[in-house]
Amino acid sequence: MRRKELCGMEKHKVRELIEYSDAKPSPKVLVNRPGYRMLLMSMRSGQKVPEHATKEMVTVYAVSGHITFYAGTQGCDLRAGEVICVDADLPHRLEAHEDSALLVIAAGTGAHLPAKSSTTGKLLDLRAVPRPERHTLVFATFDGLAAGEDFLLINDHDPVPLRRQMEAMRPGQMSWEYLERGPNDFRIRVRRIASAVGGKSSEKSTPAALLQEIRGA
User: Fold this and answer.
1) What is the pTM of this model?
2) Where do the domains of the chain lie, and which CATH numbers do they carry?
3) Which terminus has fewer CB within 10 Å in the chain: N or C?
C-alpha cells in the first residue's frame, strides 16, 4: 500500500491506489481501527453497489468520476470534489456513470468491531491472505480455542463453503454468527461451543461435491 506513516499519522497517495476491476466494484481498505474505517472504492462505468445499510453514519468523497446515490427512489448525483453524508441505518445503493473513485469513511461505535464481538480479542482478517491458505488458517485458529472462546473472521466474500466444511469436520463444536453481511466485507463471529469429542476433531472426508465447492471458494 502506498502510504507514509508519520508520528501518529498516516498519509495515503489515493490516486496511486485506484485499481479498477471489470468484474465488480473494487474496495481497498486504507484504515481499519476501532471507531474509524476508511476505504477506497473504485468503480467502472455502469457498475453498481447493491442496497445496504450501516450502523454508523458514512461520509463519501468523490475523488474522480460521477456516481448517483439512491435512498429508496430518491437519487443524488455526486461528482469529483463533492462529498455526501449518509445517515446510519439508511438503506442506500449507488451506480457509477463513468469510471469513479470514492473515499468512504465510517466513524462511530459500529465502524470497526462491536465491543462485544469477541470474548478473546482474536481477529482473523482473510482479505490479504492467499485463497489456498485461508481454510487452513481458519481451522488452525478455531482449534486453538477453548470452549466458550471465539474469534472475529473478516472476509471479502461470504465464505459459505468454509462454513460447510467446518460444520462437517468439527460437528457440534461451532457457532457461526454474521455481524456484517456484505456487500463488500463479511464479519463473522466464530465461537467454539463444545470441545472435540475425545479431544480430537473429526478429520473425515467431506463429500466430493462439497470439496469441489470449497476449492472454488
Assistant:
1) 0.51
2) 3-107 (2.60.120.10), 122-215 (3.30.110.40)
3) N
